[in-house]
């Protein structure tokens, strides 16, 4: 699988350059209404009407998680929004790595932030302010039922949040590093992020308020 390495050393972040520079195309003036294709992706959604909470689990078994031909169905605005949000997610993960993860290297699937961004925009479609009303909390689960918050991303700082998303990332236990004894894992100080993630949405308003 293709991976991206976030190899900014914690102690001296200013000495290492950012891996990729992307052109910002931010324009959140319109709510996105296009439905995204989820071919090749298993998506399970659980809705709790009592707490205004929706949990989506995305599980991918194919190495090509978001094929180019699927992206062709997105209009230009939607694709620009996905790319911009994916870029901001990657920047936040870089910052989170330097702030909160005691490791020298974090490896993530190259398309992970794009898939997450696409899912975020999809679950934002019916919100009163669209994606602009989203505040995203990023959590990292090192062990089952043991997660901690490593980052926060408010999509539009000028907009009052109408809903919150909780993104849970997990360590990938399937690689060769999982076979190492614990003391070797500590020495390696390297983390590989799983392609699977959970996204939980919590609305900050009652459903009848949005009508």
Main attributes of the structure:
single chain, alpha+beta, RTP801-like, globular, Ribosomal Protein L22, Chain A, 4 helices, Protein scylla
Could you give a short description of this structure?
The protein has 211 residues and is α+β, with helices and mostly antiparallel strands. The chain contains four helices and eight strands; from the N terminus they run βββααβαβββαβ.
Question: Could you characterize what this model shows?
Answer:
- Keywords: Apoptosis, Cytoplasm, Developmental protein.
- InterPro entries: RTP801-like (IPR012918), RTP801-like_C_sf (IPR038281).
- This is Protein scylla.
- Belongs to the DDIT4 family.
- It is found in: Cytoplasm.
- With 211 residues, this protein is an alpha+beta fold.
- It has one domain: Ribosomal Protein L22, Chain A, CATH 3.90.470.
- It contains four helices and eight strands.
- The protein has helices spanning 68-71, 76-100, 112-124, 182-188, and strands spanning 3-6, 42-48, 53-59, 105-109, 134-143, 146-154, 163-171, 190-203.
- Strands 1, 2, 3, 4, 5, 6, 7 and 8 form an eight-stranded mixed sheet that branches.
- Strand 2 (42-48) and strand 3 (53-59) form a beta hairpin.
- Helix 2 crosses helix 3.
- The longest helix has 25 residues, at 76-100.
- It is globular, with a radius of gyration of 17 Å.
- It starts with a strand and ends in an 8-residue tail after the last strand.
- Mean pLDDT is 71; it is low at 7-41 and 61-66.
Element string (H = helix, E = strand)? EEEHHEHEEEHE
Number of extended strands: 8
Estimate what percentage of residues fall within beta strands.
25-35%
CATH topology: Ribosomal Protein L22, Chain A
> What spatial form do the alpha-carbon principal axes imply?
globular
- Helicity level, as a percent range? 10-25%
Number of helices: 4
- Give the averaged pLDDT, no decimals: 71
Separation of termini? 44 Å
Tell me what the CATH architecture is. Answer: Alpha-Beta Complex
What is the subunit arrangement here?
single chain
Main pleated sheet? 8 strands, mixed
Structure class: alpha+beta
The fourth-level CATH homologous superfamily is RTP801-like
């Amino acid at each position: 699988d293709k991976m991206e390495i976030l190899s900014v050393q914690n102690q001296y972040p200013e000495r290492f350059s950012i891996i990729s520079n992307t052109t910002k195309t931010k324009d959140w003036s319109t709510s996105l209404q296009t439905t995204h294709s989820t071919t090749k992706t298993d998506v399970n959604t659980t809705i709790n009407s009592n707490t205004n909470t929706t949990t989506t689990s995305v599980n991918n078994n194919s190495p090509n998680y978001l094929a180019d031909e699927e992206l062709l169905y997105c209009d230009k605005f939607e694709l620009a929004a996905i790319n911009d949000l994916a870029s901001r997610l990657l920047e936040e993960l870089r910052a989170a790595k330097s702030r909160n993860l005691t490791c020298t290297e974090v490896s993530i699937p190259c398309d992970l932030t794009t898939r997450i961004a696409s899912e975020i925009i999809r679950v934002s479609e019916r919100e009163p302010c669209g994606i602009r009303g989203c505040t995203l909390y990023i959590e990292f689960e090192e062990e089952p039922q043991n997660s901690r918050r490593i980052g926060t991303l408010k999509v539009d700082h000028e907009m009052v949040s109408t809903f919150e998303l909780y993104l849970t990332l997990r360590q990938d236990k399937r690689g060769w590093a999982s076979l190492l004894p614990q003391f070797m894992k500590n020495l390696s100080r390297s983390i590989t992020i799983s392609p699977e993630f959970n996204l939980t949405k919590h609305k900050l308003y009652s459903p009848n308020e949005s009508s």
